[in-house]
């Protein structure tokens, strides 16, 4: 059995490593940001520690498998990752976020098992991969970020209509956030992260979306 200090160290380290990766995701305004990655890493670490503790308690008395709970984390995170993937028309977003969540769960399991060097090195690789490759992708494709905030009436299929409009302009939707207007229950606020690789003027994009039925306003950040 590990000591209480060792348990505290492992859980704290899991929070720190999950936070490092989560900070990179949050800085890019991704849906699974700081809190999500910290919780995934922390929970995975705790489950791994619990798995080892249960095994030590019954060691020699049964054929318990200490990796069984850990295996359930690997498969269970798949459901969380699947929820982060969104498909609207021809645009698919959230694949990197889903993969990041899955990798972070692995970091948490490594910390929980006491494999610190592997956890630290993997965290460094994940952080550098997410940051460096994203910058290279933007540099190679000469794309520019365009953030749109759309206020619209809550109508069936409205998100799909707006996404289709953006697709018709041959722009790429890379992130979507939907929330309800606090003052009006029948109004939605949809935030789009769009890569404007065609360098279209923002007024052109705004006018195209404003023409859609039900759209109240469009702001460019």
Q: What layout of secondary structure does this protein have?
A:
Elements: H1 4-27, H2 34-58, H3 68-84, E1 86-88, E2 91-93, H4 95-112, H5 116-141, E3 145-153, H6 158-168, E4 172-180, E5 187-195, H7 202-210, E6 215-220
Antiparallel strand pairs: 1-2, 3-5, 3-6, 4-5
Helix pairs in contact: 1-2, 1-4, 1-5, 2-3, 2-4, 3-4, 4-5
Give a structural overview.
This protein is of the alpha+beta class and 221 residues long. Helix content is 59%, strand content 18%. The chain has seven helices and six strands, in the order αααββααβαββαβ. The chain has helices at 4-27, 34-58, 68-84, 95-112, 116-141, 158-168, 202-210; strands at 86-88, 91-93, 145-153, 172-180, 187-195, 215-220. The strands form two sheets. It has a four-stranded antiparallel beta sheet with strand order 4-5-3-6, covered by helices on one side. It has a two-stranded antiparallel ribbon with strand order 1-2. Helix 1 (4-27) packs antiparallel against helix 4. The protein is elongated. It starts with a helix and ends with a strand.
Short description:
With 221 residues, the chain is of the alpha+beta class. It is 59% helix and 18% strand.
Name the descriptors.
221 residues; alpha+beta; four-stranded antiparallel sheet; two-stranded antiparallel ribbon; elongated
What would the principal axes of the Cα set say about the shape?
Answer: elongated
| Uncertain stretches of 5 or more adjacent residues | none
Percent of residues in helices: 55-70%
Q: Within the largest sheet, what's the order of strands?
A: 4-5-3-6
Helices, by number, come to: 7
Per DSSP E runs of 2 or more residues, the count of β-strands stands at 6
Percentage of residues in DSSP E strands: 15-25%
Q: Which structural class do you get from the secondary structure elements?
A: alpha+beta
The main β sheet shows up as: 4 strands, antiparallel
What value does the average pLDDT take? 81
| Rg over CA atoms | 22 Å
**Helices and strands, in N-to-C order?**
HHHEEHHEHEEHE
Distance between the termini: 53 Å
């Amino acid at each position: 059995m590990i000591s209480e200090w060792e348990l505290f160290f492992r859980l704290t380290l899991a929070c720190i490593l999950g936070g490092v990766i989560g900070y990179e995701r949050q800085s890019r305004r991704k849906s699974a940001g700081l809190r999500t990655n910290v919780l995934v890493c922390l929970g995975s670490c705790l489950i791994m520690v619990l798995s080892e503790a249960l095994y030590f308690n019954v060691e020699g008395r049964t054929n318990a498998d200490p990796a069984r709970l850990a295996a359930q984390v690997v498969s269970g995170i798949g459901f969380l990752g699947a929820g982060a993937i969104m498909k609207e028309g021809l645009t698919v977003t959230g694949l990197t976020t889903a993969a990041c969540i899955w990798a972070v769960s692995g970091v948490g399991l490594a910390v929980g098992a006491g494999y610190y060097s592997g956890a630290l090195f993997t965290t460094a690789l994940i952080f550098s991969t997410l940051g460096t490759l994203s910058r290279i992708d933007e540099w190679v494709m000469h794309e520019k970020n365009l953030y749109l905030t759309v206020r619209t009436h809550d109508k069936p299929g409205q998100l799909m209509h707006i996404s289709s409009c953006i697709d018709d302009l041959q722009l790429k939707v890379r992130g979507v956030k939907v929330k309800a207007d606090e003052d009006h229950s029948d109004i939605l606020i949809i935030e789009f992260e769009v890569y404007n690789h065609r360098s279209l003027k923002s007024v052109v994009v705004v006018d195209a979306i404003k023409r859609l039925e039900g759209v109240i306003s469009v702001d460019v950040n």
